[in-house]
């Protein structure tokens, strides 16, 4: 009898273990999908209109979503879009990027009258709609200025609210984990109506006030068995690596948590998608590499080709036409009139040089690749400078000296083998210190050249005298 029992145990024990393993796999697998095959987790971002940079954030959101999708995530991609987001943008997100778009009404910001309120944060409270995504067990809410280095699906194991402390005392809302709940969402709306304390009038201040004790919570470490945690947790800094930490040593040295996500909470005009952000900020090229791989630049390419063609045409016309302002006047003017005209010419030359170096900067599409953006800028500067050179008979080398100075500064900043950010800053300062007197000297030569031409009345010959073509009017 005892022998039969032992045989039965030997037979049944492996079966029980196998059934337990299968049951665990079903339970854990069900965390990612429900019975209808829908994903139980989501990466979410928001979009709204009403700022001068709406298109840039639209492009940034597309790049981020596509880069996340390439990491083989087990979650949906969701964009919480306000009702005024253009239909074309929504259609592109759905059809080309595979994103689920949730359309919402803008939440009224009750903090607009605060003294420190920044109008660009007026609609950031739309981020609270993330708690209304109750079709999901967990949501990772994201700002558009994140760059993903690796898969972070383990964050879906975190509790009801988890965030990173970039600031020692205030957590950052560029990435946080939440458990959707209509009760929490309605309570947040109620707190908005009641005027809950909000230091900055934006989502950052409101959530910091709503979860005031997060700093005292334990650090999140994903359980190895894949189970979900309850409660609130601090996330390791590796999930929100502030780009400013990189610039000091020109490398990442984040000891806590995986180095998974870079973020750029810097000045709004130095976000990584702007072409001028690199090489001023070395990490700007990282975002553009993500865009080049996942999205491309076909949207801006036609505008760039048209601008390049116009600039090349300007250079060709100015070289062929050889305008000569000395032919505009053939009568001797009274001394007062001549003095006035000379002064006006100096002002015109000054403004033409300023325009040559500034106008092309604002004409380049903002979100193009830095190499394309800077190339188009320098081409435009050379084109507009050629107008000034040929129109006012200016020395070409002196006019183009700032052009070469700017190019040299970019090369100094782009040099990739600095030991740290301090050395890079010192080298750039030394270059500027040496270059500034040279540029100033050549600009003075431009003005002295113009004064010399005016003194010889090259622009205003006397009646009956033939105006000789100056050597400065020839092709440079």
TrEMBL record:
Keywords: Manganese, Membrane, Transmembrane, Transmembrane helix. Gene3D superfamilies: Spore Coat Polysaccharide Biosynthesis Protein SpsA, Chain A (3.90.550.10). The chain crosses the membrane at residues 295-317, 337-359, 371-393, 400-418, 424-443. InterPro entries: GNT1/Glycosyltrans_8, Nucleotide-diphossugar_trans. It comes from the Eukaryota. PANTHER family: GLYCOGENIN SUBFAMILY MEMBER. This is Glucuronosyltransferase PGSIP8.
